[in-house]
Write a structure and sequence with these properties.
The complex is a heterodimer of chains A (about 230) and B (about 270).
Chain A lengths: L3 H13 L3 H34 L5 H12 L3 H12 L14 H25 L5 H7 L4 H11 L1 H16 L3 H7 L9 H10 L3 H30 L1
Chain B lengths: L1 H12 L15 E5 L1 H4 L3 H13 L3 E5 L2 H10 L4 E4 L2 H10 L6 E13 L12 H10 L3 E3 L5 H12 L10 E3 L4 H11 L2 E5 H7 L5 E5 L6 E8 L10 H12 L1 H9 L2 H4 L5 E2 L4
Parallel strand pairs in B: 1-2, 1-3, 5-6, 5-7
Antiparallel strand pairs in B: 3-9, 4-7, 4-8, 4-9, 4-10
Classes of the chains: A mainly alpha (about 230), B alpha/beta (about 270).
Chain lengths: ~230, ~270
């Protein structure tokens, strides 16, 4: 692997040198996966809470479905989204295929089961008497949701991290739904595929390193938040 | 501009769909194309020039020629750039594609390990080379319904061999560069187009073993998708893109593309007038 040291140097050069395309791809990757994660969080945490605390018929079935969804191959999600949004598909008229929006939707669908599953697990791990205790102390429905979420924050942060980690490193759905268009839907993972195909191995490794650094930086921030609140 | 695009993206993500290029602006053209052109980098350069010149945005979707023609049949693309003449003719006859234009050509070559266990380099006959490949060594096929695989299949048939009977032929199901890398790692033979070969030959230990047969000619043509079957297809900008590809300035650019950097001509312009 004689190319590795060279590639590391090139990666740092690409980052430090302010290569416009590299920074554009990084920003786009963060925007698409960030929006998808945010949406998955807004939908997934309340649903996870409802699944963990609710008592209704079909709950076990739903939990089973969510757990299946957590292991859903992203490329299958991509295929389904593609089938719906391609021009000849039922939602083709929206002209969303090969756009960042379509990628956000696919990534949202991949991340949401993860967020629901992890959220439900973390809420369920709280002491079972806690909700009743909060009620007896006079907390209303939303106040109770808020306080329980605070108690379960470590697990909920883990849920968000898992969701973000899964989609930022995902390539199949992004490729199918986004089309890997330079200047609009090329993200770090699909860029790696492209430059590998063009034989630009050093650039490929450079993008890979950037992806690792990115994932590390995001998780570091989240971990810091966790640890600070811990004290 | 940048900020508004960001807001727009965010808005669309939150459910407001009417966005992007505005209600009146035409949507981008979708160009279904072959991996072998895309991976050389030629397409990105050409389309940037076309968009600057015409104001029409193009989304190049890189798939095998078979998948590109299937996209056309479903109306999922406006223009097809492919290199499978037999399948293209059928698509025009079936009415999926409007008559197109020849854009450029190069050739295929058989590459393999320098030791050449099947002794492909020892014959000038393409049919004999294919028969030798059936007997010894390993052959890596695209297996993705591409124009390159289609050509490979024709070569086996011409040599009197049935691919189903070849136990040393494996399929990658991937693009040309991935397939070339697999052949390289396994010390196997493969059929590769000149453009991909020139782009990647410095990265692989394979040697060119047979080239020059007239049946190895590789012709790329561009076709507008027939709008009469699919109302969403945009015939006018599609025709404009085809015309752009065969315009003299574009043809000259194609002929010179990456020539100095890679030390060889990737594509020969061949618009028929």
């Amino acid at each position: 692997m004689g190319e590795l040291p060279d590639a590391v140097r090139q990666a740092l050069g690409l980052l430090a040198g302010g290569d416009a395309e590299v920074w554009e791809i990084i920003a786009r990757t963060l925007l698409i996966s960030g929006v998808a994660t945010l949406a998955a969080m807004l939908v997934g945490v309340p649903l996870g809470y409802a699944l963990a605390r609710g008592r209704f018929p079909g709950r076990t079935l739903l939990l089973g479905l969510v757990n299946t969804g957590m292991g859903m191959p992203p490329v299958v999600v991509g295929l389904v989204v593609w089938l719906f949004f391609t021009r000849s598909g039922p939602l083709g008229g929206l002209q969303l295929i090969y756009t960042p929006q379509a990628m956000m939707l696919a990534q949202f669908l991949i991340a949401t089961p993860l967020v629901i599953g992890f959220s439900a697990a973390s809420i369920q791990s709280l002491p079972p008497a806690l909700p009743d205790l909060l009620t007896s102390l006079g907390a209303g429905r939303w106040r109770r949701l808020w306080l329980l979420s605070r108690e379960a924050r470590l697990g909920l942060l883990a849920a968000v991290m898992a969701g973000f980690g899964a989609i930022v490193s995902e390539v199949g759905a992004s490729m199918t739904v986004g089309g890997n268009l330079s200047g609009s839907t090329r993200v770090l993972t699909t860029a790696i595929v492209t430059v590998t195909g063009r034989g630009e191995m050093a650039t490929a490794i450079a993008y890979g390193l950037i992806l690792l650094i990115l994932a590390f930086a995001v998780n570091l921030v989240l971990t810091l938040v966790q640890q600070r609140r811990e004290r | 501009m940048r900020g508004s695009r960001l807001l727009c993206t965010l808005g669309a993500a939150l459910g407001a769909v009417a966005c992007g290029r505005g209600a009146g602006a035409p949507p981008d053209l979708i160009l279904a194309t072959t991996t072998s052109v895309y991976e050389t980098g030629l397409l990105d350069s050409l389309l940037a020039r076309f968009t600057a010149e015409s104001g029409v945005g193009v989304k190049p979707i890189s798939v095998g020629s078979g998948a590109a023609l299937a996209m056309a049949a479903r109306g999922d693309a406006d223009v097809v750039l492919s290199h499978d003449p037999a399948a293209e003719r059928r698509a025009v006859e079936a009415g999926y594609l409007l008559p197109g234009r020849r854009v450029m050509h190069n050739d295929f070559l058989i590459v393999g390990p320098a030791e050449d266990p099947a002794d492909v380099g020892g014959t000038a006959s393409l049919d004999e080379a294919m028969r030798r490949l059936a007997e010894a060594g390993e052959f890596v096929s695209r297996g993705d319904g591409s124009g390159t695989e289609s050509r490979e299949a024709q070569l086996w048939i011409a040599a009197g061999r049935d691919t189903a009977q070849l136990d040393r032929r494996i399929e990658t199901g991937q693009g040309m560069s991935a397939t070339l890398y697999v052949a390289n790692e396994r010390g196997a033979y493969t059929l590769v187009d000149r453009g991909t070969w020139l782009t990647l030959r410095g990265r692989v230990a394979l040697a060119p073993l047979l080239e020059g047969d007239v049946r190895l000619l590789n012709v790329y043509s561009a076709f507008p998708v027939n709008p009469s079957r699919h109302p969403t297809v945009q015939p006018d900008p599609a025709r404009r893109l085809v015309d752009f590809l065969v315009a003299p300035a574009t043809q000259a650019y194609i002929g010179e593309f990456a020539r100095e950097r890679l030390g060889g001509q990737l594509f020969v312009p061949s618009a028929d007038g």
